[in-house]
């Protein structure tokens, strides 16, 4: 069981807005930032959001992140079929002295 | 172009050892914290180990402590993972990762480790 909790699945239709949550504890999130990865089928993970809400160059602004207290969210607006992937939140846990991933959320575009 | 190329994976018997390597190019290797992460078949991502830029700090997930050793050779732009006492639970695709918690994150394509008799 992961230190960070994500829903195992999420879904939406093209054009919709979907959100994926990531919850942890104060020792996990605390003052630490959260990052999000997208893993398309059969490929290596790709950084989608860093430092809670920043997008690396090349990531469409349809993707946005936020963090409040001990939870974080990834929002995808204008959902597209190519967004169908697994999404992972990740942060540094001070109490474990470890990088911790969420269990991942499989996004299906209906 | 940033490149991380893993090698050294393969089939090993339970209790055996493997040494993974990661050849880095296209960036100043010694400027970045490096990591190993893994993904068991059909499962999620799991962080394995982290090493500081100069090798002075190392961190491991509890399940590999005492069995795995992360190291680096900045002169050779290379990252390593020595894996001992392997078990079936270590079967996974192992990724070499640059800066897993930063904007400069970059992942290799992975090398498959299969532990089976």
Largest sheet: number of strands, sense, barrel closure of chain B? 7 strands, mixed
Instruction: Give the oligomer, counting copies of the same chain as homo and different chains as hetero.
Output: heterodimer
Shape of chain A: globular
- Structural class label of chain B: mainly beta
Name the helix and strand elements of chain B from N-terminus to C-terminus, one letter apiece: EEEEEEEEEEE
Number of DSSP helical runs of chain A: 0
Stretches of chain B where pLDDT is under 50 for at least 5 consecutive residues are none
Write down how many β-strands of chain B occur, each being a DSSP E stretch of 2 or more residues.
11
What is the CA-CA span between the terminal residues of chain B?
A: 39 Å
**Tally of helical runs of chain B:** 0
Query: What portion of the residues of chain B fall into strands of 2 or more residues?
Result: over 45%
Give the strand tally of chain A.
Answer: 9
Assign a percent range to the helix content of chain A.
Answer: under 10%
Percent in strands of chain A: 35-45%
Instruction: Calculate Rg of chain A over CA atoms.
Output: 13 Å
Q: What class would the helix/strand composition of chain A place it in? A: mainly beta
Largest two-chain interface: A-B, 27 and 21 residues
Radius of gyration of chain B from CA coordinates? 13 Å
Sketch the major β-sheet of chain A: 6 strands, mixed
Jot down its keywords.
heterodimer; A: 110 residues; mainly beta; six-stranded mixed sheet; three-stranded antiparallel sheet; 9 strands; B: 117 residues; seven-stranded mixed sheet; four-stranded antiparallel sheet; 0% helix; 50% strand; globular
Write the topology of this structure.
The complex is a heterodimer of chains A (110) and B (117).
Chain A: E1 9-12, E2 18-23, E3 35-39, E4 46-49, E5 63-68, E6 71-76, E7 85-93, E8 98-101, E9 105-109
Parallel strand pairs in A: 1-9
Antiparallel strand pairs in A: 2-6, 3-4, 3-7, 5-6, 7-8, 7-9
Chain B: E1 3-7, E2 10-12, E3 18-25, E4 34-39, E5 45-51, E6 58-60, E7 68-73, E8 78-83, E9 92-98, E10 106-107, E11 111-115
Parallel strand pairs in B: 2-11
Antiparallel strand pairs in B: 1-3, 3-8, 4-5, 4-9, 5-6, 7-8, 9-10, 9-11
